[in-house]
Amino acid sequence: MYAILSRLPILQGMNGRDLAMIQEMASEVHYTAQVHPKPFIHAHTICNMLYFLAVGSLVRRITSPDGRFVLEEVVTAPAIIEPESLYGLQCTFCCDYMAHTDATLLVLSKQDAALMVTRNDVFRMNLLNHLSAQIQRLGEQLRRPSPEAVWMRIGHMINDLSISPTGPKTLRAKMEDLADHLHETRLTISRTLGMMEKHGLVELRRREITVPDTKRLTRSLLHATLSPGQDPA
Predict the structure, then answer these.
(1) What are the contacts of 33-39 at 24+ separation with CB within 8 A?
(2) Domains in the chain: ranges and CATH
(3) Which of 23, 79, 114, 120 gives a 20 to 30 Å CA spacing to 201?
(4) pTM (two decimals)
(5) What does each C-alpha distance from 82 to 33, 51, 57, 67, 208 come to in angstroms?
């Protein structure tokens, strides 16, 4: 357990005594994928616990406010679930979470998390670094100019909805809704997605766009590398 705790976000760098304190405070919860196929954390519900994914993997699902877009991605241990939702204007989760494999989570109450923030410098600085990284990531999205290439706008949309830079992602949307969101025609979106599939960036199914290799998509977006011809006419 010490080895697991020392790898978890926000707990890295803490000494054995502090980790033992965390272990005493936290409750251990197990989820089995076959038994818990539905979310055990629901979007828009009160966040009064700090969840650490210690073992296994979860599916994170975010739904747009109008319900037209749903993105799912796999979150693998070690990970922390929405610590930014503990405080702020709306203390609610923004996503659904369900078991992807058998998973073990450590759960710390909001009161105990606040106690660690006030008493432990490492915990406080790790949390501050995590929140700062989240803010900087959002700032980069706002400052980034919108590319002209439609394939890049589709790629950025998927990346912006994700929290993990790795692993597969699946975006569920109607072609008409995606075209309306990107201010393009349905035909242009269909041809662009077909081109992206030809280059191995996405896999297409009915109303589903799967990114099998997020790192490859990110590299392509960073270097604007897609040939020949970029977007289809």
Answers:
(1) 33/99, 33/100, 33/101, 33/102, 33/103, 35/99, 36/98, 36/99, 37/98, 37/99, 38/98, 39/96, 39/97, 39/98
(2) 2-142 (2.60.120.10), 146-222 (1.10.10.10)
(3) 79
(4) 0.86
(5) 21, 8, 15, 21, 26
